[in-house]
From TrEMBL:
SMART domains recorded: HOX (SM00389), TLC (SM00724)
SUPFAM superfamilies tied to this protein: Homeodomain-like
Gene name of the record: cers2a
Protein name: Ceramide synthase 2a isoform X1
Biological processes, Gene Ontology terms: ceramide biosynthetic process
Keyword entries, A-Z: DNA-binding, Endoplasmic reticulum, Homeobox, Lipid biosynthesis, Lipid metabolism, Membrane, Nucleus, Transferase, Transmembrane, Transmembrane helix
This protein's record includes keyword DNA-binding: yes
Bilayer disposition of the protein: Multi-pass membrane protein
Length: 393
């Protein structure tokens, strides 16, 4: 058993040494020895990445405090109000089926449940709709999450811009690769990287408890690809390109999160104006600057300096994954924009799981009696309305 364990450790060590060979990650004639700190110059080290984990844990704690002390009072100030949800009646048989079998029963399953419980099919359909709504996150939870991401993305964009605006590679893309890989690490680059990496780790840790959207799988792919991209660019000293990539991504995200905040608060016009700005910035940053400026600098320009190597393909492969996600998300942005253009007064997040309502045609005798009791007798075959508003369950 001891020999087997030693063999496994030896194999892992051999695999590690092979994986990090100079020729895989650097141009010919260059390697890890070029990243040894010397003459007062400091270079990035793979061991530095461990710093991002305690930062991620700090973000998780700070987020809880922020949502409690800042986001919740802000929600009240902006007038975030919850819809009154009608809870599903207590029904052990339907509850057991909901939890163990399916939250969306087929028509045949509804018929079977109807016979089993002695309820009509309409009542079973209504029970499952209401029960699903009970598990959907409320507006306050959505607002808290959006306000937290808005705060981070805005501060990260401002900090990132301050870190690179005076650097030559912010204006000349060729400067991203000047003297590669012997590019000294700056303190501002170190903290920009560690904070961004820690934040994305915190998003990955909390994704299970956050509001689940239709692009849940794409979110996971995005977080993992981003973490790999940041980590890899740090290890092989692609830091100049990495800072520009992070800056481009942070430039539009805070606008989307602020649009969501105002949407949840019911400030429709403000939400729409911000959303228009977000769509424009997203298009320019993700579909123009990212592929034609940054990716051009990472794909085309290095070919004029060095022969291709594995790290070149790996790095640009991750950028391709991100660009595919940009195209996917911009498709959702366009769908929202199309709904907005004809004059709709609300911009909905296409990724959200929308709350279901009880259709009037699916009403049952029980609810009819409930309405009569609340609103008084039927007048001319129609139920009277309270203050000209009809209650929607």
């Amino acid at each position: 058993m001891v020999i087997g364990l030693n063999d496994q450790l030896w194999m892992l060590q051999g695999l590690r040494e092979w994986f990090w060979q100079d020729w895989l990650w650097f141009p010919e004639g260059m390697g890890w020895a070029d990243l040894e700190s010397r003459d007062g110059q400091v270079f990035s080290k793979s061991g530095d990445l461990w710093m991002s984990l305690p930062i991620a844990l700090c973000f998780l704690v700070i987020r809880q405090i922020f949502e409690w002390k800042v986001a919740t009072p802000l929600a009240a100030l902006l007038g975030v109000r919850e819809k009154v949800r009608v809870h599903a009646s207590h029904n052990p048989s339907l509850e057991s089926y909901f939890r163990s079998t399916s939250k969306h029963p087929t028509q045949d399953e509804v018929k079977s449940l109807s016979k089993q419980t002695g309820s009509s099919e309409k009542q079973v359909h209504r029970w499952f709709r209401r029960r699903r709504n009970q598990e959907r996150p409320n507006l306050l939870k959505k607002f808290r999450e959006a306000s937290w991401r808005f705060t981070f993305y805005l501060l990260a964009f401002i900090a990132g811009l301050a870190a690179v605006i005076d650097k030559p590679w912010f204006y000349e893309k060729e400067e991203m690769w000047k003297d590669f890989p012997k590019m000294p690490l700056l303190p501002s680059q170190y903290w920009y990287y560690m904070i961004e990496l820690g934040f994305y780790f915190s998003l990955l840790f909390s994704v299970a408890s956050d509001v689940k959207r239709k692009d849940f799988k794409e979110q996971i792919v995005h977080h993992v690809a981003t973490i790999l991209l940041i980590s890899f660019s740090w290890c092989v000293n692609y830091i100049r390109a990495g800072t520009m990539i992070m800056l481009v991504h942070d430039s539009s995200d805070y606008l989307l999160e602020s649009a969501k905040m105002f949407n949840y608060a019911g400030w429709r016009k403000t939400c729409n104006y911000i959303f228009i700005g977000f769509a424009a910035v997203f298009f320019i940053s993700r579909l123009v600057l990212f592929p034609f400026w940054i990716m051009h600098a990472t794909i085309v320009y290095p070919l004029t300096l060095y022969p291709t190597f594995f790290g070149y393909y790996f790095f640009n492969g991750l950028l391709m994954v991100l660009q595919c996600l940009h195209i996917f998300w911009f498709g959702l942005v366009l769908r929202m924009a199309i709904k907005f253009l004809p004059g709709n007064n609300i911009v909905e997040d296409e990724r959200s799981d929308k709350e279901e309502t009880d259709d009037s045609e699916d009403g049952d005798e029980e609810e009819e009696k409930e309405r009569k009791t609340k609103n008084g007798p039927v007048q001319n075959g129609h139920l009277p309305l309270n203050n000209n508003h009809r209650k929607v369950d």
